[in-house]
Q: What sequence folds into this?
């Protein structure tokens, strides 16, 4: 009996996705574990592997189709011994989903505008690489891909631009008359503007943050941490080896992990009928990408040293910006850190990432007058604000966590024990 291949749900928030491209053709033999196609979700581009063996009998949703609903049929797999006659016997309703049926209607209108963006059906690139190439006028046909299956990634585009690769100016010139025919709207009141359609990732961010602010009872606790000893230790450690390059954020991750071990009641989330206390310390770290915010996870952070945390975060941040995080690398986590100190932000309050109970907002370290031993002195002070879900963590628990965190940050040698 033929097997329907369904659009998978590759993240908890995914309701639809884009079938970027097929890696198998109709008639190709398929083994369990073979990669059938690449799917772009609201978070990243991921590979869809076959579970069963057989022959790819029919592709229902072509590569490049957006808005394919989760669990909609995208292809038919013929089992051993079946032939093409099994395809005609299959019920039509099981072969076509609403998103797939809608795609052909939109194709005649969208095709002229989509062709310059895709740069040809045989050019495969990540969404970020396409965006950079489009903004720079770079012809992707002249770029060699170093990603999986020859896919063009951000690094390839940047390398091509630095080497003076040919640009797509003729295409842009051809498209210019269309742009003139459809000028940007001029409002009756207020400044002129342009509209950019929401990406899947931005839609999910808007939905989840609105839900968090409307349904999660936030309260906020702020503590001032003197980080002069931390900065001195960081400088000393970085000077000892080229195998790592520690950042202040690496110390923050380590301090949060150890503080959660001391105050496990803060390592919790709300689950409607219960409070879920995590037995492992998995720290989500907010990373800004061109598409939006994503939170890769440093798992078992309490068992990792500063160098290991630093190197792991560099890898995770790079994968996040290239859209290559695997679901298990950004789904889950029990506590989130959001650090805007590198942008010079003195203090801010972050929005909780449900169902987690806490998120720590880290500001920039700056020199301020402080009182030490009854005398005025100068110290480098960093403000940290804990946003707390009051359904999960009470004020006393939040204060206890921040006290443990502050002690570790201000005496960083204790993190090395």
A:
């Amino acid at each position: 009996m033929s097997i329907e291949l369904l659009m998978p749900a590759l993240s908890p928030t995914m309701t639809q996705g884009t079938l970027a491209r097929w890696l198998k053709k109709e008639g190709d033999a398929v083994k369990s574990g073979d990669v059938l196609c690449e799917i772009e979700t609201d978070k990243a581009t991921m590979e869809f592997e076959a579970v069963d063996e057989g022959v790819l009998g029919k592709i229902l949703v072509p590569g490049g189709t957006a808005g394919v609903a989760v669990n909609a049929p995208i292809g038919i797999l013929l089992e051993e011994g079946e032939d093409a006659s099994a395809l005609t016997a299959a019920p039509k309703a099981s072969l076509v989903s609403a998103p797939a049926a809608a795609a052909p209607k939109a194709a005649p209108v969208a095709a002229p505008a989509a062709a310059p963006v895709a740069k040809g059906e045989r050019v495969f690139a990540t969404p970020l690489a396409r965006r950079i190439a489009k903004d720079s006028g770079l012809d992707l046909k002249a770029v060699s891909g170093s990603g999986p299956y020859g896919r063009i990634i951000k690094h390839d585009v940047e390398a091509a631009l630095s080497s003076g690769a040919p640009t797509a100016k003729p295409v842009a010139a051809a498209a210019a008359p269309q742009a003139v025919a459809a000028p940007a709207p001029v409002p009756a009141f207020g400044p002129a503007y342009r509209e950019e359609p929401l990406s899947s990732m931005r839609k999910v961010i808007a939905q989840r943050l609105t839900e968090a602010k409307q349904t999660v009872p936030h309260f906020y606790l702020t503590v001032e941490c003197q980080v002069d000893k931390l900065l001195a230790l960081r400088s000393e450690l970085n000077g000892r080896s080229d195998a790592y390059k520690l950042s202040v954020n690496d110390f923050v991750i380590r301090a949060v992990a150890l503080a959660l071990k001391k105050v496990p009641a803060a390592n919790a989330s709300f689950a409607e009928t219960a409070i879920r206390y995590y037995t492992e310390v998995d720290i989500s770290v907010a990373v800004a990408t061109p598409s939006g915010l994503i939170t890769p996870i440093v798992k078992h952070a309490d068992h990792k040293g500063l160098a290991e945390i630093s190197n792991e975060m560099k890898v995770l941040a790079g994968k996040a910006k290239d859209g290559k995080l695997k679901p298990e690398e950004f789904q889950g986590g029990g506590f989130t850190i959001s650090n805007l100190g590198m942008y010079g932000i003195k203090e801010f309050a972050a929005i909780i990432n449900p169902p987690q109970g806490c998120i720590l907002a880290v500001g920039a370290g700056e020199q301020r007058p402080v009182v030490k031993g009854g005398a005025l002195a100068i110290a480098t002070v960093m403000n940290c604000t804990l946003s707390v879900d009051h359904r999960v963590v009470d004020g006393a628990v939040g204060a206890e966590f921040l006290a443990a965190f502050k002690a570790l940050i201000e005496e960083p040698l204790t993190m090395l024990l």
